[in-house]
Structure formats: C-alpha cells, structure tokens
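Hi R.,

Here's the chain you asked about this morning:
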Amino acid sequence: MSSPLPSPAAPPRERADACPGALQTHAAADGGLARVRVPGGTLTAAQLRTLAAAARELGDGHLELTSRGNLQLRALPDGAEVALGSRLAGAGLLPSATHERVRNVLASTLTGRTDGGHVDVRPWVRAFDAGLSGDPGLAALPGRFLATLDDGRGDVAGLGGDVGLLALSSGSVALTLGGADSGLRTHPDRAVALALAAARAFLDERTAQGSTAWR
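And the predicted structure, written out as tokens:
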C-alpha cells in the first residue's frame, strides 16, 4: 500500500509546560486531575482493573480516555497522587517516576492484528518506551512531547507527532519531525534508535537556542 507522508510541520510552541501526570496532578475545578501514560494504548486486564479501582477509591469513579490514548482520573483529593503512584508502580504502569509525563506514544491501533501495515510496531512501542525511560536526559522532554509509531496504514502519522516513525515498506521507515517528513530513511531494526536520537536532538537544539518550546 502507499503510505501517506505528513504535511509540513507546525511552528514551535512556547507556552509553559503544565501538562499533568500521575505524580504531578492538575488542580481542576472538581479536584486533582491525574493523567496516566499508556504507551501504544495497550493495557493488560490486570492493569485496567488497577486503574478502575484507583478511580473508584481515590477519585470520582470514572476513567477518561484522552486523544493520545492516555487515561485520566479526576476529583482526586490532595495527596492522592502518592497512593496512586504506588498502585501504578505495582501494576507496571509507572516504570520511571522521573519520566512518567514524557511517555506519550501513539501507535497504529490494529498493528500486528490485521492486514494493512508493513510492520508490527508493537516491538517499537516497547523499545521506544524502554529507551525513553532509560535515558536520564530524556526526562527533560516536555509533557506534551508526542511520538507516533505508524505501521504504514497512516492512522497516526498525520496526527502531528513531534517525533514519528512511518513504515514505507517492510524494509524502509521514514522519520517524521513535527508532523512532517524529515527525508531520513532507515531500516525497521534501526528505527527506534533513530527516533530516540531525534528526541535528544530536540533537547540539544532547544538548549542551544535558550528556548522553552515544547515542540
């Protein structure tokens, strides 16, 4: 199939980074709002039960699904993030307290499950998340920084990820930056390393410019 390439990138965004996490909640009108990152949108049944219990016992009983495939709990009392963090860590949903807000990863929804993609990007999700959480420097990424991992069917490549991988064939992957094609190509086996290098380059360039841009 022909893989659609993203449109030109949007301009840098300089607003302050106040994006909530599971440990750094947002004070909303109904109480604390916590956002739990779910890289690739994949949860086990046990993890979902942990989240449902946390929402019921710590918040208002509801789980909200965000446009980036993450989950939100609302109406949390002051200090509830401590108990929430403990529950998430026990369920494998908080592998790194320092990196928890930067694990924003969207992946092709049906990858590896149906025909239509060039590669199964589920291994990319796991490798990118592990590489992200394992690099101390990448904890400085903004909480809005988004990675898109597209198997070639084009369902997430057009969503404007700050760093993205788009499979063009079973042997070629395009790197996208700010939602636009960078022109760089690599093999699927080297794609995650390239995406992580691009994330580091973003931080290096932001530092060089003395900027607070989050994309």
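The mean pLDDT is 93.

Let me know if you need anything else.
M.
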